[in-house]
UniProtKB/TrEMBL annotation:
InterPro entries: Extracell_DNA_Util/SecSys_Comp, PilN. PANTHER family: DNA UTILIZATION PROTEIN HOFN, TYPE IV PILUS INNER MEMBRANE COMPONENT PILN. It comes from the Bacteria. This is PilN domain-containing protein. The chain crosses the membrane at residues 21-43. Keywords: Coiled coil, Membrane, Transmembrane, Transmembrane helix. It comes from Rheinheimera tilapiae. Residues 64-94 form a coiled coil.
Length: 199
């Protein structure tokens, strides 16, 4: 006689398949959660580390900005001190300039030329006087052109005496005073040897 299985074996098999499916789904969910949690933890750690580095860099940048500001302030103070020192040096160098100008004018004024008035306005000089001849004024102009302190001689006018008994002519001449640095820089440089000199 043939054996017949009357138990609901299809339902039992179906329940087993459902149990396996649920187990697989649960394992997949747990694995996905652990994976996402791990990745999130890694990225969170990386972000925290980067934030820490950013905060450190911002702190160092703030310190450098403060130092740059201090350096700029020091540079401004240095420039102000340099300007003061240059002004003091100019005042000291021009302290004896009036005496030097008078001495140089006496050197460039030849015999036969007489000065009656001298005016100084800034670097310009105005000479008013009398001359025995035009040649003497020409000699004076050449002396000014070779002077280390005076330059740019300009003869404004020369007027012969109206009275024949007077031999002197009136004249007016403009000169320029060279700057102190130019004068002393030129005087400190070695002069070229005269042509035809001995070796």
């Amino acid at each position: 006689m043939a054996y017949l299985n009357l138990l609901p074996w299809r339902d039992a098999q179906k329940k087993q398949q459902q149990a396996r499916f649920m187990t697989t789904i649960t394992a997949a969910c747990v694995s996905s959660f652990l994976l996402v949690f791990g990745v999130s933890a890694v990225y969170s750690s990386m972000i925290e580390g980067q934030d820490g580095r950013n905060n450190y860099l911002q702190g160092e940048i703030a310190i450098l900005d403060q130092r740059i500001t201090e350096i700029k302030q020091l540079d401004e103070k240095k420039k102000n001190l340099q300007k003061r020192m240059e002004l003091i040096a100019q005042l000291q160098s021009s302290r004896n300039l009036g005496t030097q100008i008078m001495d140089e004018i006496a050197k460039v004024t030849p015999a036969g030329v007489y000065l009656t008035n001298l005016e100084k306005k800034g670097p310009s000089l105005l000479l008013v006087g009398k001359s025995e001849s035009n040649n003497r004024l020409s000699n004076m102009i050449r002396s000014v052109e070779t002077s280390e302190l005076l330059s740019n001689p300009l003869l404004e006018f020369i007027e012969a005496a109206k009275d024949e008994t007077q031999l002197l002519s009136d004249f007016k001449m403009h000169l320029m005073v060279k700057s102190y640095d130019t004068v002393h820089g030129a005087s400190n440089q070695p002069k070229p040897a005269a042509a035809g000199g001995t070796k």
